[in-house]
Amino acid sequence: MPDQAPRAGLSAAILLAAGAGVRTGHETPKQVRTLAGKPVVAHALDALRAHPGVGPVALVVMPGSEDAMRSLLGHRAESLAIVAGGSSRRLSVLAGLEALARSEPGAAHVLVHDSARPLLPVAVIDRLLKALVDGARCVVPVLPVVDTLVRSGGDEAGQVVDRSTLARVQTPQGFDFAALMAAHQHWSGPEPTDDAQMLRRAGIDVALVPGDSALEKITGPGDHERMERILTVGMSTRVGMGFDVHRLMEGEDLWLCGVQVPHSHGLSGHSDADVAIHALVDAMLGALAEGDIGSHFPPSDPQWKGAASDRFLAFACDRVLARGGQIEHVDVTIICEAPKIGPHRGTMRARLAEIMMLQEARISVKATTTERLGLTGRGEGIAAQAVVTLRLPDDDAEAAS
Ligand code: CTP
Ligand code: MG
Asked: Is 50 exceeded by the pLDDT of residue 5?
């Protein structure tokens, strides 16, 4: 899990998920429907939390749905502020601001994002945070208007409007925290459709940065299904494999798949020597073509001495998110004569699901022996193999480089 403790220089974030989604025509609010294997709201939440420049996140939900959201998000809800929203988008933002204002130390900047825009590119967050660090007090991502625009009614119906001076505004929008709070506290007038217009009304300049077509909002009927197609069409499948061996020794704890297994011997190594997680991390890094576990967590670095391997796995999962990818499936094979893995398989799958924020149905843990042959057969060590299937965006710039 990304560290949620506020750190200096980080931006806080408000993720709005308190709307009813009336215009979709669907009985379930759009933010809690499942999109490409996870709730809509989890997409932007993961993107925000995976970004190193984003600190505390306040998730704003319909009043009374806090517990339901917590159970929907499962482990994603850990160390996440879930707050009740209001009857309008504006009041929901204010609820988020008030929750963040209570977190210590306060953040200088805040991003406000609609969960109904699930596909949140890292590059857009980068552009917003850069503008804020460079001194902007209000910054919004925009897209050019590409269609011809006309007046839709009245005496001027059909008359062309000059589109060259217009742009379409998206979220997330970035703000100086105090300026946004002041604009909200002093607002009077019709309900605004975004926050930047409130700052503009308060006399604050609105900086523009390029938006992204991926950020289209789920609004009307069919938008959800269209987004589902975008998510599956523009992705290619990557497979990674990993292998690892650690020596069995007396007096060591035995950790496998993040679970401590009672046994006469344990595995020795620089970290907790969880051979199964190490193979899995290497498989993930292999699918990402991002080196191996040793290149990210060198055994020569004292900070990894005795480290719990779940943080290596959480790191690899964060890398998948940062690349805009999804984990499809993982398959781990533990190779040993003893202990018996069968009785622990369920706990191991549950623990991996927890660390990876993945459904258990997508996680396989198997075990085999080598018929008393070789190093595992003689009980000198335990080996593990893993295969991971990921989906990464076709236009993944890092993969292309
Ligand atoms: N939102 C909110 N609180 C409200 C209204 C809206 O947090 N009282 C959030 C929505 O959850 C959404 C974002 O603001 O993520 C943008 O709003 P919109 O697209 O209008 O969503 P809904 O209000 O849910 O949809 P509709 O207007 O069709 O009911
Ligand atoms: Mg609305």
From this structure: no
